[in-house]
What we know:
Layout: E1 9-12, H1 18-29, E2 33-36, H2 41-53, E3 57-60, H3 70-82, E4 87-90, H4 105-126, H5 131-139, E5 147-154, H6 155-159, H7 165-185, E6 190-197, E7 213-216, E8 219-222, H8 227-232, H9 245-256, E9 267-270
Parallel strand pairs: 1-2, 1-4, 2-3, 4-5, 5-6, 6-9
Antiparallel strand pairs: 7-8
Helix pairs in contact: 1-2, 1-9, 3-4, 4-7
Bound molecules: nicotinamide-adenine-dinucleotide.
Residues 13-14, 16-20, 37-40, 43, 64-66, 91-94, 114, 152, 154, 197, 199-200, 202-205, 214 line the site of nicotinamide-adenine-dinucleotide (NAD).
Amino acid sequence: MAGLLDGQVALITGAGRGIGAATATLFAREGAKVVVNDLNAEPAEAVVAAIREAGGEAIAVPGDVTAPDFPETIVRTAVETFGKLNILVNNAGFTWDGVIHKMTDEQWQTILDVHATAPFRLIRAAAPYMRDVAKQELAEGRTPEPRCIINVSSTSGLHGNAGQANYATAKMGIVGLTKTVAKEWGRFGIRCNAVAFGYIDTRLTQPKEKGETVEVAGRKIAIGIPEARRELIPMLIPLGRAGTPEEAAGAVLFLASPLASYVTGHVLEVTGGYGI
Ligand SMILES: NC(=O)c1ccc[n+]([C@@H]2O[C@H](COP(=O)([O-])OP(=O)(O)OC[C@H]3O[C@@H](n4cnc5c(N)ncnc54)[C@H](O)[C@@H]3O)[C@@H](O)[C@H]2O)c1
C-alpha cells in the first residue's frame, strides 16, 4: 500500500523519545527514510532498530543539536546516506524552568539555544539541499520534489507560562522563524509550518518528583511538572486528558504529507482544546 511519504527522506531531531520517536516511527511506516537524531545514542538506536524490524529504513545520528557544527554534520550525513532531504522536523528540546526574577543567564541561553538557535542553524544547513536544489529543479523546468520543515512549538509560547520565560520566548521565536522561512522559501515550493503542543504525555511532562534529568554539557537539569500542578492541567483541557506521543506525531505527519500541500506558515495547535 502506498505511504504518504513514500520515497522521501526525513530528519527528525530529538527522536529517541516522546514526540520525536513517535514521529520517526510513523514517518517510516508511511514510507520515509528517517534520520533519527538524539542527544542520547541508546534511545536513538533503539528507535532505528524498531523501524528496521518493521521493514523501514533509518539511521541514528546521535549528537547535541546545539553544538555549532552539528547541524552541518547531520544534514550532510542525511544526504550522503539517503541522497537527499525532503523533511526537517525541529523537535529536540527540554525545559529548564524558573521564575523570571531567579532565572540565570545560563538558564535563559541554554533554552534559547536548543529551541531557537539550533532550529535556525539546521534550516540554514539544509538550505543547499532544500532551497538550492528546488531552485535548480525550477530552473530546469521541473516540478520540485515535496519539501517541508516542521518546527515544534508550544502553547507556552503562544500564551506564556509562569516559570517558563526562557521556553516561552524560544517557542514563540520559532513561530516567527517558521513564518519567515515560509515567506522566503515558498517560491521554491518549500513549506514551513509549526505545531504548538499543549500537554503531551512524555518524559518532559512526567512528575518532577520522579527526578528525571537532561544532561547537557556535564550539567544535570531537572525536567518534569510538579505533581500538584500536573493534576490540575487536565481540568483546563476540554478533552480532559493529556495527548499521546502518537497523537502528536499524527499532526506532524499531516503537515509533512501531501494532505497539507497548500498549508504553509501555519501554527497548528494540538492541545485537546487547551487555550481556546
Ligand atoms: N510534552 C509536551 O507536553 C510538549 C508540549 C509542547 C511542546 N513540546 C516540545 O516537543 C518537543 C519534544 O519533547 P517531548 O515532550 O517529546 O520530550 P522528550 O523528553 O520525551 O523527548 C525529547 C528528546 O529530545 C532530546 N534532546 C534534548 N535536547 C537535545 C539536544 N540538545 N540535541 C539533541 N536531542 C536533544 C532528548 O534527549 C529527548 O530524547 C520539545 O521541543 C518540547 O519542547 C512538548
